[in-house]
Structure formats: C-alpha cells, structure tokens
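From the pipeline queue, job 12 of 40. The input is one protein chain; the requested action is below.

Action: predict structure.
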Amino acid sequence: MKSISMEPGHREESFPSRGERKGPKKEEFLAYIKEHIAQGYPVIALGIIGPPEPYIVAGYEAAGDVLVGWNFFQNDSEFASVVRTMDNGYFKCGAWWENTDTQAVMCIGAVTGDPCEDKEIIRMAAEIMKAREEDAYAKGIAAYDAWKTMLLDEKWFENGNGFDELFSKLLVQNDAMVCIADGRKWAAEYFQDLSEKYGVEEKSTCLKIAEHFKTVSGAASEMMTLIGDWSDIDKMLDNFGDRSVREKISELLDQAKEADIKAYDQIMQLLSCI
C-alpha cells in the first residue's frame, strides 16, 4: 500500500521499497509511474540503473518496459549493455526491473500553498548553519571541526586500510565538498539577487553574505582540485591518503568555516532588520 506523508507546501507519496513489503510486482511500479507521468509529474526512483540512489524517471516507452529519465550512473561503462543515452541526455533502460537495486518510486506531486517569503528562507538558512550537535553528529558550522578532526586522525588512513575502506571515505569526502561548493555557490547568487530588493544598508549586507558564500564555494573547489578528478581514481586515492594533501584540505576547511561564520553573522543581522 502507498504511504503518504504530509509536509508544508506539498504532498509526498511513496511506493514502499522491497525491504518494506514482500514481492512488489513490476506492474505495481509501472502503474505508479504511469499514473504520475500522466498527471505531468516525473517520479523519483531508487535504483533503475546502478545502486539504490534517487534518480528521475521522466517517461517510458514500450508500455513501460523501457524507462526514460536521468541517472547519475547512466554513463558508467559497467551499465553500457543495458542503457542507451538519447540526444537530449536522458537514458533509455529496458532492464530496470532486473536491477535488484530498483527498490522504490515516489512522487512529490503538485506544490500547494503559498511560497516561502524571503525572510522565512533566510531564517531557515540560519537554522541550518547554526553550530550544534544532534545525537552523535556535529551539524552546521560545527561540522567543519569534526570533518577536520577526522581528516587529520591517522587511524582512519593507516596502511592497514584497504582500497574499499579508503574509497568509501573518499566518497564521503567528495559528497561533502560537492555539497558545499554547489550549495554555497547558489546561496551566493540568491543573496546577490536578493540585494536588489532592499535599500542601501540591507543591500550591502546581502552582498557581503554573497561574497562570504563565494569564498566557501571556492575553498571547496580547491579541495576537489587537490584530490583530483574521477578520470584517475587511483591517483585520487593516493592524494586523499597523503597526509600533506589532507593538511592542505584542513587549511581550506578553516577558511570555509571562517567565511561561513561571517556569512551567518551577517544573516542574523539581516534578519533583525527586514
């Protein structure tokens, strides 16, 4: 059966994964996909191509035997035999159900209610950035120190750690760098655009926030350059395992933290006067 969770602004429907119910049928997945695409909504699927991570299914062919969409793994050579890339960049895959990692499909559906005002968006940004601990996790700006501590603790990078363990840590490092580089880049653009809505003082504050976020994004991009690119994974692992490289990354983390603190302080100042 479908589970439905209610959140402000939208309704989310989710088809249960294989781990939550026994024997979901291909026909049930297809019926769900077809229903929402007919309504004009693409769906988010776990699996389809590669591991059970979220991907977009935007359409289908051959009554659903072939799915069309976008997937992070669609260009990987190991999946080349079951995937074709269309001229528009979308994949076509006819072996999506044979992939045992195809585990769930969901749809956000129509957005309802009023959009968030700028002040509410800024307030949420401040809550996310606030340094704090939740359970065993350091969050917000506090995460920088936890990240740095891990990078400089040699027990995580000893010679006894094999390829799989180091590669797993590299994936976590990469996700964190990409999230900061991309997230702060677009946050900078948001505050730059927002500056045009206000008077001189608030505009100046918005532009300062944008510059701080650009600094954070730039520091994260430099981290990625130090580690290397995915065309040579062995080199990336060598770099990531090299303490001197991780020390340089730690220095960039300090720069990013300092800039984020300044951005946070400016955000709090902006909230007090808008």
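Job complete. The CA atoms of residues 48 and 240 lie 31 Å apart.
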